[in-house]
Amino acid sequence: MLIMKMPYTKSGKCGNVVWQRNRYGQICYPAFTPFNPRSAAQVAVRGNFAAVSARWRTLTQAQRDVWIAVARTKWSKPRLFQRGRLTGCQLFVKVNVALANQGKPQVDLPPEHLRLSKRAASTIPAAFEGKRKNEECGRWPRNFISVKCFSLIKLRAGLGYPC
User: Which single residue of 35, 59, 124, 130 has CA 20 to 30 Å from 80?
Assistant: First the structure.
């Protein structure tokens, strides 16, 4: 890697050389193309991804609105301590690519929407009559998570046995 001090900054690809500026100054390195084996499995997964992405454009606006509403409740996987809410298209692709890769039929509405339809949601309180308040809401007791996490920490440190 070559470090050069120049009064101007060159950036980008020029022939077979890539120019870049970092905190130490201007650098350049030979351009390269990453290896792409194009195996049958890789081509199949990329084909599924392309087909599902194209299928998003064929949904009706009402179906898209449902995906968008459900996606607002979902968070992306944290990367570098950052996360954000998913878009409707991202959730649609995430759910349907996984189904397509498993050979299962794709869905037009998100699974959460199908599970929590108005009819099913209206019958939930009747099923929990006579139970404690936190069980009515479908929540764990407040101290459950801290007790389990503390037990796992003790177990990993070799200080105790699993509960």
Answer: 35
